[in-house]
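Before relying on records like the one below, remember that each one covers exactly one chain. Contacts with other chains, cofactors or solvent are not represented anywhere in the record.
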Amino acid sequence: MIFAGPLVIIAQQINIGSGAKMVIGVGATVSAGSAEASGTVTNTDTTRLVIQSSASGSGSLICGGTPAATVQRYVTANRWNMVSPTTNAVDGGTFFLASGSDSWLTKFHEPSGTSGAGAGTGWIYITKLDSTLPPGNGFSYYPSVNETVPFAGDLTSSNLTPSLSWSGESYGYNLLGNPFPCTLYWDNTWTMPNVEKTIWIWDGSQYQSYPGASAPHYVPVGQGFFVRATAESPSITIPASKRAHNSQAFLKNGDLLADLSFIVIHAYNNDYEDKVQVSFAVNGTDQFDNGYDATKMFGLAEAPQLYIADHEDNLSYNHLPLISTSETKTVALSYIPGIDGEQVITAEMVNFSEMNVTLEDLKTGEKQQLKQNPDYTFMGSKADDPERFLLHFNSSAYGIDDPGSLSESNMKIYASGKTIFIKSTGDAISQGGVLCLYDLTGRQLAEYPFEKGGLVNVKVDFSNAYLIARVIKPSEVRTAKVYIN
């Protein structure tokens, strides 16, 4: 029997006996029972059950039992592909002996792979044909021609709990993968104590992040993905109940939730792209929201790298509380070009009808209203300070100052993280001053003298608080309400 897609087959029991063969083509789906595996497939020969794969996707099987099968995984030439075996009995020889080209296979070593894993740290080459590659573990494979790798062995139909390691706050990255012969639905409901609720999938130039609540995602057949342990004794259960038939092609973006107000900032340079997302909702906080926020993993050095520097870890997703029309939120946006030259930033906004967004370029001093003009083109260099941009949300771009008086002042005050920024123009550039902080009752809390300069950054010793910031210079006194994370 050859099932070619699009085709849906549902049966309670499937028995593939001697002389029979079942081939599930790309786009075809076969179910024995449900995702909870109430039905079974019986087969003892890997050549009699074949699930095919191509550049457009894979066939799909949901069943109970552990039937023998061959599950194909299409891989693209001249790039690293994050892969994961779909059967047991897979080893290094599965790749090297099946390959008709030069090829390289690696695994990821958590104790040596830091948050800069995308830059190449932590990878170990696999050179032995008998190296065991178990289901649920991820690997990275580089062929010099397009290939279809056959995983031959017994299928998995129950929960899988791969081992995780954690070597400290700067580490914790573990490369796992989808162990099932169907897509795997990733969301915020998996059991994963002491693990960030985000997966990262390599798209050829960037690690695309998918926080479980903000960006649920269908993980394709044979696809590897990263998770990050955050403390001792991390664990994760890859749930069989999340198996699904889905035509999700390899590495497509997950669905963003429509009930959030969010903005996606895209950066384009050197024929590559990167992006970050900032969202606002009633359940958002100024702290790290596990499942909504996502740590940034850095991609190719020749690709642009865009990230949010509001937390101890750089972020690619930042989920914040709702802000009223009288409030302003400033988010620091950092950027590293792939190559020197022209760079483009584009904003995509959803449910932002009541909110203004201003992009401020700290290098040039330019400010642009992104709702009126979502595209910003500028010149950039790898030698530039990465902390180049600020995103100001709501009608006023600067604290509680009257927007109508901005042009009359030579100082502007805003905060990001635990840093207060004092931007000066005109005579104020050549003047030092004092930053005084008050609580909302007017009680003075601290003073911070600072030197002259066009943009001064003052680190403060407060957290999770609204404060009144007063800047005193010989030529002017300026006050703003700020929030310190």
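Residues 403-484 form a domain with the Immunoglobulin-like fold (CATH 2.60.40.1270).
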